[in-house]
Amino acid sequence: MTGTGRISAAVPFPTAARRQLADPQLRANLRRATRTIRNRRSQAVDEVTDWEALRATGAAIKDDVLSRLPELLEEFETRATAAGAHVHWARDAAEACAVVTGLVRATGTDEVVKVKSMATQEIGLNEALAEAGISAVETDLAELIVQLADDTPSHILVPAIHYNRRQIRDILTAGMPAVDASRLTDEPAALAEAARRHLRERFLSARVAVSGANFAVADTGSLVVVESEGNGRMCLTLPDTLISVVGVEKIVPTFADLEVFLQLLPRSATGERMNPYTSIWTGVHPGDGPRNVHIVLLDNGRSDTLADEVGRQALRCIRCSACLNVCPVYEQVGGHAYGSTYPGPIGAILSPLMTGPDSGANRTLPYASTLCGACYDACPVRIDIPQVLVHLRQVGVDARRDRPSLERVALRAASNLIRDRRRYAMALRAARRGAAPLRLLAGSRGTARRLPWPLSAWTTSRDAPLPARQTFREWWAVRAADESAQVAGNPVAGDATHEPEEPR
Amino acid sequence: MRIALFITCVNDLIYPGTGRAVVRILERLGHQVDFPQAQTCCGQLQANTGYRQEALPLVRAFVSAFEPYDVVVAPSGSCVAMVRDGYPRLAAEDSTLSAAVAALAPRTLELSELLVDVLDTTDVGATFEHRVAYHPTCHGLRALRLGDRPRRLLAAVRGLDLVELDEAEQCCGFGGTFALKNPEVSTAMLADKCAAATASGADYLAAADNSCLAHIGGGLARRPGAPRPIHYAEILAGPEEGR
């Protein structure tokens, strides 16, 4: 079933990116933040001697899961149910929201506390709960900032990465009535303390918590949440009712498999050797933690993704966001440009895979990359993101072969020309001759400053190179002729190999 | 050893000097280089833009042009990466072509791989008395894993002062049709690369790929005091020391 919810870009990526680029503050914030996390990650990874083996193992475990997902999900359901949890299944965002809303309503409460969760962002749960008259309070600091600003997260791990601390101070003072605006500084510790006071009452009064999960362990029926602030631990242990929305790909076969992922995840995500809080729970334990434990297993386009032979590796993703932090495109435009809960390189493949690759503006996402490969290198589960990007481009092109396309006409013409050596040589010669007036105009600079559409997209911001006076194959032919003349004993006018280089 | 030069379309038309440099380096080291006239273009533009059907004839053309040679050398990281990484995927559905690609792709090398790994040479006898910053282009860095080979070759050049480039491993923002499909993002990435290149204080910015250099050079041309772009093969081809 095709995925729904907040995974569909509303506008094409180039348009959305252009808007983001116009904000110099955003770009400065992003550059500082991504560089910091990137450097921290690379230190944390470099000190692990068997990192490549860990990555390969992580990928292999996830591939094993994907190859027998139905069986493992049933095992998980059986174990979790035996431990006292209630397992629900949701095909898409609407179904998942309906299940959670119904469960919250049944408790009679109108406020829930939330642990930071991508799955609940993906299904638009907060909005669905609000429509049912239930307010959802985000308790992760960055997630709270985004919620108070009436904004959406722009990063998987650091949802408020697009703000600096001065902006955050203003958001907190405006959104938390109890805060004395005249006394709150923009020191990180002061900001965290203000949020802590604001949240403490919510933790103590909440009867229902909603979370996601980083891992779901099939052989024990356990869920795992990895976090930094301890807000998660509060939500997972204090309220009576705990509802967790979990993507079906979060399964790991055995408890022992966590050993691999609990090394890969924190180092890749925050650049820490170990995250401060890891919470693991299995069903219900009398007198300890929530008495009603619900687990909503979410498909929402994951089965479609699994059916794509090349694209299915995207389901290995453990949401560490290392690919975002190393991506030069993300660093320029930030997460909102991708128009989905999942931004950056992983979002550029995951969103179209979940919604269907030819769906609306999501089909522009696979082109939101230079294919530089930094994401693949950083990925702790070896998702070959550039390969999937090219694959999705192919799927998009092939889906539209029956429609007119200037690009296709041009690239096919080029292909027809190039595949034949004589036509190709003629085309090179024609291009060289045709560029002669441009070369004249360019003078000693050797490059063109302005070219007509569509090449103007290039020359708006950069000079364009021009064909040389003599192509390489022409030079080679002259040289070969000279050499045979030399062999025949004739004098050679000039040594073609030592002509001065042309200016660039 | 029969060495074939795969010039690549961009070099053939726009940067023939890079091709001449490769010939000069290899001949100076005592090797004969052949230039198979049947060669055209690797098809990277079509393949990476999603036009697999249009790229496939170019895979066949490449294989038939270069099959007879022991080694194929190209002064372009991205074109070699296309052959080594892209071709096996493009050819997967045709078993005959697939087998031919599997045999030829590992013999297709970027210049620094040929020099360092096959010919066991880092000092090619060049002199170049300038400050040079090296930009490791993405496909050379992450697809071919060229590592420090180009830098080792440059470090052995007499008179050459190799200077550091900040955030060297960041992409310049070219990405083939990316530069046209997302021109503003591409331009923003280019601005960062040009700023780093200028701040390096280098006279020249060297790289192993002229398509990336065309992009970076297009930006540098509009910056006063910026280094000039140069393919590292043209540095390695520099005049021999008088001995």
UniProtKB/TrEMBL annotation, chain A:
Q: Does the keyword Repressor apply?
A: no
Q: Specify the Lactate utilization protein B C-terminal domain's residue ranges.
A: 401-479
Tell me where on the tree of life, at the top rank, the source sits: Bacteria
InterPro entries given in the database record: 4Fe4S_Fe-S-bd, 4Fe4S_Fe_S_CS, FTHF_cligase-like_sf, Helical_ferredxn, LUD_dom, LutB/LldF, LutB_C, NagB/RpiA_transferase-like
- UniProt keyword terms in alphabetical order: 4Fe-4S, Electron transport, Iron, Iron-sulfur, Metal-binding, Repeat, Transport
- Region of interest (Disordered), ranges: 484-504
Pfam families per the UniProt record, alphabetical = Fer4_8, LUD_dom, LutB_C
PROSITE patterns in alphabetical order = 4FE4S_FER_1
Q: What region holds the LUD domain?
A: 73-297
The chain positions of domain 4Fe-4S ferredoxin-type read: 314-383
By its UniProt entry, which SUPFAM superfamilies does this protein fall under?
4Fe-4S ferredoxins, NagB/RpiA/CoA transferase-like
Q: Which NCBIfam families match?
A: LutB/LldF family L-lactate oxidation iron-sulfur protein
* Listed name of the protein: Iron-sulfur cluster-binding protein
Recall the taxonomic lineage recorded for the source organism.
Bacteria, Bacillati, Actinomycetota, Actinomycetes, Micromonosporales
From TrEMBL, chain B:
**InterPro entries associated with the record:** Cys_rich_dom (IPR004017)
Q: Source organism's superkingdom?
A: Bacteria
Cysteine-rich domain segment(s): 3-83, 132-216
Q: What is this protein identified as? A: Fe-S oxidoreductase
Instruction: Supply the source organism for this entry.
Output: Micromonospora qiuiae
